[in-house]
Design a protein that fits this description.
Length: 545
Amino acid sequence: MKQGLSLRVSQHLALTPQLQQSIRLLQLSTLEMAQEVEQMLDENPFLERTEEVADREAFGLEQIDAPVSAGEQITDAAHVAADVAAPPSERVSTTDSPSESTPGDELEGRLDGATPVEESWEGDGTVEMAPDDSEWGGDAPARNSGSGDDDETATAADLARVPVSLQDHLHEQARCLRLSDEDRAALYLLIESLNDDGYLEDSLADLAAAWLSLSHPSASEDPEGLEALREELEQRLTTALHWLQHMEPAGVGARDLGECLRLQIEEMRNSPEARAALAICKQPLELMAKRDVKRLCALCGIDDETARAALSLIARLEPKPGRRFVDVERNVVVPDVIVTRAGRGFKVQLNAEVMPRLRVHDVYANAMRGNRGGRDGGAGGEAGHAAMQQRLQEARWFIKNIQQRFDTILRVSSAIVERQRNFFMHGELAMRPLVLREIADELGLHESTISRVTTAKYMATPFGTYELKYFFGSSLGTETGGNASSTAVRALLKQFIASEEPAKPLSDNQLSDLLKEQGIECARRTVAKYREALRIAPANLRKSL
């Protein structure tokens, strides 16, 4: 085997830790981004929040990539206290600084004019009262409800907005019942076993077995005693279920949709329509869903007019009794970008509420600056100083990557608004076809970067809040040779269905013909796909009785 030296040239892509972090932050949603910031604040002592809108950092990306141990990098650390990273002031609404409060006669009277004010243990040395200082102490004066301190006073409207869960609502009703401890425990178990819609998904036998394993663990040694206890607990749960199903809201505690509807009908006034509706709910629900009036009349022994009145009554019932107790606040979407009208155009700006304001911690940066040579001596001091210098560098990287993330979101959003200008003026019917590659070519970014930016990022527009991906859609051909956006076609279908005659709903073929009359070539299968995406039932289920 002959040995020798050879020279080979090759190319490979290496992702630096900073680039990896930048890509990861770019694809995070607003909630995930907030969690990432909290985690970084806990792990890195050089990061801290700031409520002030400061100027952008002066250092660039090339300085961040410099070696950590270089002397120039250590010199830069001396200026960390002045390096504050925040979004550009022109893109964020400046927050008003709190009004300054002076000591005044009230503070002097509270101190009886004799006690000297010493410097606080935090070392700030201020003697001014913060807005909430007067709340501390037994001699604090009562707040005036009409003073305008809406942020600090819990009004009746604020208390009314506190969400009440379905379980809390049912427990309040259960407290009014005179029950034994065992029956109250059975009712408590059933209430806590309900799902968000108010249904009891677990069977009484399973709940009895679970209750038995928790309350009588020693009964497992006696099989006969175990079975007797299980039957007794199941009987208690059956009785408790009867009480639960007579609570408000009507239909709570049902095991299926049919039982839920029957419980609500039983609470109504006894009438021929109610009796017919009760009989219909005992039949297979598929017949009711298909509006098969003839078969329902034959099975229930009622006439056609009574069956239609009963179906109309059933349509007004609530299929999910616990729906109104669901906390809708947790599903609120916070937009990343806000678009508003500005003269004849539109103004695109980032949402200041979702933008974290971070800076390098002054105290720790100055402390490391004083220990720049490792005053502890030895290799341990130098290694510790190098590790802390690395943490400082990571803090600066994190701040810069957050800036770059919001810069990219703003650039992409501005390009979308420019391309979809007709949508912001006339609505979704004016949406034009748009693909990711168009925005990528315009901004000089990769298509995958645009995909990361538009995922789980939302834009508040005059017509509502939409995900950025909503503004991208495929194109459909028209008779004139142009293109129509699939989003506009779906909006047009929704408009056709909303204006149809209830007794004669439009079929998918008829909707396809209506689109052809508008000059849009759209097959029946495509119409069915768009209709299902809009969660609109087919024509036979939309037919009004």
